[in-house]
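Hey all, quick one. A colleague (J.T.) asked me to put the phosphoenolpyruvate job into the tracker so the inputs and the structure tokens live in one place instead of scattered across chat threads. No bug as far as I know, just bookkeeping. Sequence used:
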Amino acid sequence: MARTPYIAANWKMNKTVAEAAEFVDALLPRIAATQHDVVVCPPFTALHEVVERRRGTAVRVAAQNMHEAESGAFTGEVSAPMLVELDVEAVVLGHSERRQFFGETDAALARKVPAALAHDLEPILCVGESEEGRDAGETETVLERQLQADLAEVADADLPRVVIAYEPIWAIGTGKVATPEQAQEACAFIRDVLRGRGAAADEVRILYGGSVKPDNAAELLALPDVDGALVGGASLDAEDFAAIVEAAG
Ligand code: PEP
């Protein structure tokens, strides 16, 4: 089935409000004709600016994290209702940097994914193996464990509302991109796991993330089970990011 390509810019902890505004102004004319889903994930501080600047365009906005509770004594956290109030439409959950540096657990993700869905925020759930995991032949075991745990509380019928990003940790920010074979194999496996859960797996968008650049995007995005890209480093430059959107066809 035809799945709309989904290209997301994960800025991580980059760009002030002024820099975010400059990026959006540079991006919009470059992608004006696209039919793809184009999503920008700024830091919390620039969400409002990006939401307002893209109004009336096809660009959608995602946060990079979210707490599962609606409010409460959780210093430093931001909730789904706070994001929805800003007209944010999606949220990245379980990025490997959050798992690695901030103790994000599968147990927390099992609460965050349904909390996002309950507020009509589209979760972009990141999964992926470490270099040691791949070398030990554990890629599929790791992916299956993360998917089953993180999506445990999501009804099968709701799975197509979740976007999955396959992000091998060894490829993130390293310049070491997965081969097309590795990316296809892992994304097809993810689709199989979802199918095994009884989901309409052909409707789920599965992205590849890990050192996607304008010069390798077309080959990755043409793979049958790769429906888009989650782009870190190359998404900081509007021209490069627009070139990746264009590479999706
Ligand atoms: C990411 O942060 O999700 C990512 C894939 O980063 P990069 O494109 O820089 O590897």
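Adding what we noticed when we looked at it: Residues 37 and 231 are 13 Å apart (CA to CA). The chain is about 40% helix and 15% strand.
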